[in-house]
Amino acid sequence: MKRSLKNIDYSTDAEQTARFAKALAHPVRLTILKYLSNQSCCFTNDLVEVLPLAQSTISQHLKELKEAGLIQGEINPPKIKYCIDQQNWLKAKKLFESIFKEDFTKIDCC
Predict the structure, then answer these.
(1) 13-61 tens-digit pLDDT
(2) Residues with Cβ within 8 Å of residue 26, at least 6 apart in sequence
(3) Which of 10, 47, 49, 110 could lock onto 14 through a cystine, CB 3.0 to 4.6 A?
(4) 16 vs 66: CA distance, rounded Å
(5) CA–CA separation, 88 vs 31, rounded Å?
(6) Which residues span the domain enclosing 45?
(7) How many domains, in total, are found in the chain?
(8) CATH for 90
C-alpha cells in the first residue's frame, strides 16, 4: 500500500531542518563545510585541489549546500566565491540543538 504525506502540514522549522539534514547527509558535503569553516571563502578550484573529485562533482555538492542555504555564492566572473551562510548556519545549529536536547533515553521502547 502506498502512503501519501500530501495532507500533512509540517511546521516551517520541520521543513527547514529536513532541508539542512538532507544537505548534511553526504560525507563530501560535510568535508566541504569543514573546509569552508577554516577559510573565509573559497572557489571551486580550491576544493578541486584538496578533494580527490572531479570539478563537476564538487560543483554539484556546492549546489546542494547552496540550495539548502548553508553556504552562499558570490559571483566573481568567471568564478563563484563560496562561504558559509552565517545566518542560516546559526539557524541550523539551533534547529538541530532543539532536536538533540530531547532525552529519548527515558523512553523504554525496544
Answers:
(1) 889 999 999 999 999 999 999 999 999 899 999 999 999 999 999 999 9
(2) 61, 64
(3) 10
(4) 13
(5) 18
(6) 13-95
(7) 1
(8) 1.10.10.10
Going by the DSSP 8-state scheme, the letter that residue 94 receives in this structure is H
Indicate the residue type of 18: A
Kind plus residue range of the DSSP H or E element containing 82? strand 79-84
61, 64, 67, 72: CA torsion to nearest 10: -20
* DSSP symbol at 96: H
Q: What is the pLDDT of residues 58-101, one digit of tens each?
A: 999 999 999 999 999 999 888 999 999 999 999 999 999 988 88
Residue 70 has a CB neighbour count (10 Å cut-off) of 22
Would residue 85 be called left, alpha or beta, if left means φ above 0 and alpha means ψ between -120 and 50 degrees?
A: beta
Largest CA distance in the chain: 57
